[in-house]
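Chapter review: from sequence to fold.
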Amino acid sequence: TLRADRLGCYGYAHPTTPNIDALAKDALLFEDCLAEVPLTSPSFGAMMTSRYPRMNGAARNGLPLPPDVRTITQQFKDAGYQTVCVTSNWTLKRDLSGLDRGFDQYDDGFKDKRWGFMIGERIGDDVTAASLKLIQERDPNKPMFAWFHYSDPHAPYKFHDKFNPVGKPLRKLDEIAAARARYDSEVAYTDNEIGKLFAAFPRENAIVLFVADHGESLHEHDYLGHGRRVYQDNIHVPLIIRGPGVTPVRTKAPVRLIDVAPTLLSLAGLPPIEDMLGVDLLKTEIPADRTRVIETYGGAVPGVPGAKAVMAARPPMRQSVTKGEWKLIIGGPGPELFNITADPGELKNLIDKEKPRAAEMRALIEEWDAHIPTGSAEAAELDGEDIEALKSLGYVE
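The C-alpha cell string follows.
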C-alpha cells in the first residue's frame, strides 16, 4: 500500500525512506510504474504471472489464481532454486490467493490485530524476523528466490513514536494532515525494518527488486484508502532494481507491474513463461507513448451464499487508460480526462475541452477490452474468520 510519492527517492520532502533511498542511489529506478489493479492479491497475481488480473480470473481479493496458471515461483523452483515467502496480509493467505504454488516455504501466519479486534496482518518487525530466519537457514548449495512482503502502511495507519517524518505532534494537525502524518510514520517504520533486511543480503550476488502492489489515497478526491479508484495516488507505485548487471539510472519509461515477472526471470537467466504479456525491462526499449489500461473491481468477494459467482463475473467498476501525458478514467460518476504532466494531482477534468482526444482514449479501452479475455476462477471458500479479517482490512463490501 505504498504510493510512490511518499519516498524520498521519488521526490518526497519528508525523511520517510532513508534505507530505500540508499538502495535507489545504486539501482535502476522507474519513475513511472503503474499497478495493474489497486488490490493486493490480484496485483501480486499479475506480478507473478505477467497476466492481467481479469485474464487470471482473479481480479478481486478472495479469487485465487486458477490451478493451471503458472507463476514465476514455479519457474524458479523447477530451475533448482530454493523458494521462500513471508507474507503479512490476510488477502495473501494461501487458500485465498493461490500464490503459494511453487514455494518450498510460504509463511502466511498472522498474529497481529487490525483495528484492535481481528487478526488480519503481521507487523513489520515480525516480517523482518521471519525473513532473516529464512535467509540464515537457507541451503548454501542452492540459489534462492524470496518474496518478503510488508503491509504496514495500511489503514488504520498506526503512529510510531520513534518515526515522525512530518515532525509535528498529531494534536496540532487537522484530520487530513494527521492521517497523512500517521501514514508517513508507518512508511518510515517499515523502511527501518526493510533496512535490516537489506543488510542481510549478500551484496555481491543478490538481485533486489523493490515494488509495491498499489498506492493509497490520503483524502485526495475525497477518498481514503484504495481499491475503488484509479487515480495516480492509487496506482502509481515505486519500482527499483539493484544487482549485478543492472545499470544504476533513473528512467521515465512507462512501465507496469506485469513487467516484473519477465524481468526477474531474465535477470536469473531463465526462460519466460509462455504467453507472458509484460516485457523484460532491462532489454526492451519501451515507447514513451505506451498504452496502459488499468482497472479495478473494488474490494473482495463477499461470503454471502450465491454472491461469489455473481461478483466474480462483474465488470470493472472503473477503468483508466494512460498514453503519454494523457489519462482517461471511465466508470464511477462520469468520464474524466487529465493531462497528468501539467496536472499530476488530476484536479482539472478536461473532458469537455478535449472531446476528440477523449474519444481516442476511450477507443483504446474498448480495443483492450475486446482483445483481453476474461478468465474464470473458483472463489475461495471464506469461513467466518476470513470474512471478518477482510472486513477489518476494508475489503468486503
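Two observations follow directly from the output. Residues 147 and 259 are 16 Å apart (CA to CA). The chain is about 30% helix and 20% strand.
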